[in-house]
């Protein structure tokens, strides 16, 4: 999930970021020195992003100060990288109502100096880690922006086009999550085959063995295994087709 989100952040910056933003943020993201996050969800705004309340206040130097709370932020806080680049949806004062008034901002954990070195700690802090049923190795954070004067952010692209830019990141993440599912399904199939070859239970119905045999000899078990294999290979083929279509569209 961490490299998946980082890749999505890179895609968003390549599409809508300024040359300066691309030069500052993309190399360390690609090198793995920094990681990226996607900040959409708020306590009152889940699937309905029209309810986003995080606000962005323009500053004289062209930056923005970000104020608000984001929840369920995957890899929102960790110490595996020198910096975390948060891509945050927020609303500028006077923006249209609903999703047409949402903008996208770069809000790094540590501010970045002109020479690319890390500067002061930004006013973006993890206030808690979610307790989940699964995927426990992935820290899911509640992030608070602006409790100490405002988190410094940079606008990506144009104001009020944030959701459009965020969907670039989301689409990359969606494909990655789907491919992750294919990998998990294939590993589950491999484990199931290994277990079926090892677990001994009952005589085969076709009489091929005189006594108890590994359950892979039972027709219904073989049917289940072949169903798993067919579905997994079908999904892999679909993922390959989608990847080829994406490459053809962009290259």
Automatic annotation (TrEMBL):
Pfam families linked: Acyl-CoA_dh_1 (PF00441), Acyl-CoA_dh_M (PF02770)
UniProt-recorded name of the protein: Acyl-CoA dehydrogenase
Organism: Hemiselmis andersenii
Domain of life: Eukaryota
SUPFAM superfamilies tied to this protein: Acyl-CoA dehydrogenase C-terminal domain-like, Acyl-CoA dehydrogenase NM domain-like
Keyword Transcription regulation listed: no
Family membership noted in the UniProt record: Belongs to the acyl-CoA dehydrogenase family.
InterPro entries (alphabetical): Acyl-CoA_Oxase/DH_mid-dom (IPR006091), AcylCo_DH-like_C (IPR036250), AcylCo_DH/oxidase_C (IPR009075), AcylCoA_DH/oxidase_NM_dom_sf (IPR009100), Diverse_Acyl-CoA_DH (IPR052166)
Gene Ontology MF term list: oxidoreductase activity, acting on the CH-CH group of donors
Cofactor(s) named in the record: FAD
Swiss-Prot/TrEMBL keywords: FAD, Flavoprotein, Oxidoreductase
Domain Acyl-CoA dehydrogenase/oxidase C-terminal: residue ranges: 160-250
Residue ranges constituting the Acyl-CoA oxidase/dehydrogenase middle domain according to the UniProt record: 38-146
